[in-house]
Design a protein that fits this description.
CATH topology of the largest domain: Jelly Rolls
Order of helices and strands: HEEEEEEEEEEEEEEHEEHEE
Radius of gyration: 18 Å
Structural class: alpha+beta
Number of strands: 18
Number of domains: 2
Helix content: 10-25%
Distance between the termini: 32 Å
Oligomer: single chain
Number of helices: 3
CATH architecture of the largest domain: Sandwich
CATH class of the largest domain: Mainly Beta
Length: about 220
């Protein structure tokens, strides 16, 4: 159930070395000089020793710019071991906890599935997904997926339903889109730190209205 998943994330966040609540983002410089960004509702463990540098993403999303250090660096998720080769990249556990999405901005990342299935190396400008089926063929990234690092959601003819699902990750409570308007398209850059402004922009630019059952239960409906 959804509330059980929410409680599980809260517990993992409390136990993690670094975490963010819904609507929060974090930028942290690590001991090896790497720069780490955590997106909303994310949790990561940091374990550096003489042999290696290990980051374990419990849930949510991170962006990492690797520092100069001779020790091997590993990012671990439930699906894969990721070995960056001098790089900047993002890692996201999907909301259902059933897969890992990897996007590489600079350098390369070696992907090693934990189930022993064949791995691959993902080059800059590409992304892939790792789940129970293995490592998906890589596809080109458009860069919009990491706009959250700068505090934005960037949409390029994005479905309204997909946009609302992404925005809901950054807002407490429930934010939903009625199926009757979910296929509307929108383009633009939207500031994550002003959710009410985003909803007002949607109302002014699309044939939709915002219905508020409570401040924490919001639905976009056709107008």
């Amino acid at each position: 159930m959804a509330w059980q998943g929410h409680d599980s994330r809260l517990l993992q966040g409390a136990l993690a070395d670094l975490s963010t609540a819904t609507g929060e983002r974090l930028h942290q410089r690590l001991a090896d000089g790497s720069e780490l960004w955590l997106n909303t509702a994310s949790a990561v463990d940091v374990r550096f020793d003489a042999a290696q540098r290990l980051l374990r993403l419990r849930h949510g999303e991170l962006e990492l710019l690797t520092g100069q250090d001779p020790r091997p660096l590993v990012v671990l998720t439930a699906e894969a071991r990721l070995r960056p080769l001098g790089t900047r990249f993002s890692v996201r556990r999907d909301d259902g906890g059933r897969g890992t999405l990897l996007g590489v901005s600079q350098g390369r990342v070696a992907v090693e599935p934990l189930d022993g299935s064949p791995g691959r190396i993902v080059e800059a400008g590409w992304q892939t997904r790792i789940d129970a089926s293995g490592v998906a063929p890589a596809w080109q990234a458009d860069g919009s997926g990491t706009a959250w690092v700068d505090g934005f959601i960037v949409a390029e003819r994005m479905r309204l339903g997909d946009f609302v699902a992404e925005l809901s990750r950054h807002r407490p409570g429930v934010l939903r889109c009625d199926p009757a308007c979910a296929d509307l398209r929108l383009t633009g850059s939207f500031p994550l730190d002003d959710g009410e402004r985003i909803l007002a922009l949607l109302e002014s630019s699309l044939p939709v209205r915002v219905s508020r059952l409570t401040p924490y239960w919001v639905t976009l409906l056709p107008r």
